[in-house]
Design brief:
alpha+beta; five-stranded antiparallel β-sheet; 45% strand; elongated; Restrct_endonuc-II-like
Length: 329
């Protein structure tokens, strides 16, 4: 049996997402059958609400060299019925036999064969591009220091991310890592300024520049309340709460650029451009642009790779106790 192309299945999932109008779209979903409760995998599933009722769209996709025959249609019909799919779709990159098309129509299964770019699409916004430049940002926290205060005295100290951040009554607000992530986001919302800096650095240093900044967040609050960390008092040797007066985060923003070559086609009446490219050493990015007859276009993308490559941990959690002795007075 020909091997299914993951790239093709992902393309169909991304196109479905762009056409779904708010429905939740997932790829390679396991659904329970109505008769036995056993799970069956569906290539793409879209779940939305139509007239107040939940609608489940099941899509099976094949990227085979030969046209798909009636056997696949019959197998899919049984599978879709057992799963209770409201809308049933089969997508074949190579098309369907005449018998398969007639049978699918009789069963109420929609068949789609993505087509090549058509003459009316030539010259449109998306089709004019033969590649797209994708920028991926990773924010790496280098150091997070907490400024604590008690009775007017302050102390600045680096702590692990798994230290609990507490309210005045001792209940937990979050972990320090979450507070640090929030602070970093406040300083990294607008990457356009960074991009301008990178463009200048590209010309001067050949694209090897990195962005270093320090996020300084005075008097952090959670739900409008002051927050604290727990530590040992030098005076009494007992645990006390120390108010967090400030959190100083030093972080590094690194940009990776992928040059994505684009091909063009048509899917169920929608023109699209798509491409796949490596993103760094061990990740990939897949982009899909769609365009309406009026020239409006939208974009969906998918990143695949190790979690550390795409979204590295913002700060080490460490292995120290949750109430570190290091915070002291």
């Amino acid at each position: 049996m020909p091997k299914r192309s993951n790239e093709f299945q992902r393309l169909i999932a991304l196109l479905t997402m762009l056409k779904a109008e708010g429905a939740e779209v997932n790829e390679s979903v396991e659904l329970e059958t109505l008769d036995t409760g056993r799970k069956r995998e569906v290539d793409v599933v879209a779940v939305g609400t139509v007239a107040g009722h939940i609608a489940v769209v099941g899509i099976e996709a094949r990227d085979w060299k030969r046209k798909q025959d009636v056997q696949w249609v019959e197998q899919a019909k049984t599978k879709f019925d057992r799963l209770g799919a409201n809308v049933k779709i089969l997508v074949s990159s190579s098309g369907f036999t005449a018998d398969a098309l007639d049978t699918a129509k009789m069963y109420g299964i929609k068949t789609i064969t993505p087509g090549e770019v058509t003459p009316e699409f030539v010259g449109k916004v998306v089709n004019r591009a033969d590649h797209a430049e994708y920028w991926h940002w990773i924010t790496l926290v280098k150091k997070a220091e907490v400024v604590i205060t008690r009775d007017g005295a302050t102390q600045q100290q680096e702590l692990p991310g798994n230290v609990p951040v507490l309210y005045a009554d001792g209940s937990e607000s979050s972990l320090l890592e979450e507070l640090v992530n929030h602070i970093v986001k406040q300083h990294t919302r607008n990457h356009e300024q960074w991009e301008e800096g990178f463009r200048e650095a590209d010309a001067l240093y050949g694209g090897k520049a990195k962005y270093i900044a320090t996020g300084d967040a005075p008097a952090p609050r959670s739900k409008g309340q002051k927050v604290y960390v727990k530590g040992l008092s030098h005076a009494t040797g007992e645990e006390e709460l120390f108010e967090i007066a400030n959190v100083i985060v030093t972080f590094e923003a690194v940009r990776t650029v992928a040059d994505v070559p684009l091909t063009h086609g048509e899917y169920d009446g929608t023109f699209y451009s798509t491409g796949l490219a490596p993103l760094g050493d061990d990740a990939t990015v897949q982009l899909v642009y769609t365009e309406s007859p009026d020239g409006d276009f939208d974009l969906a993308g998918r990143l695949d790779g190790s979690i550390d490559t795409l979204w590295p941990r913002s700060m080490p959690c460490g292995s120290g106790p949750s109430s570190p002795d290091a915070v002291s007075r």
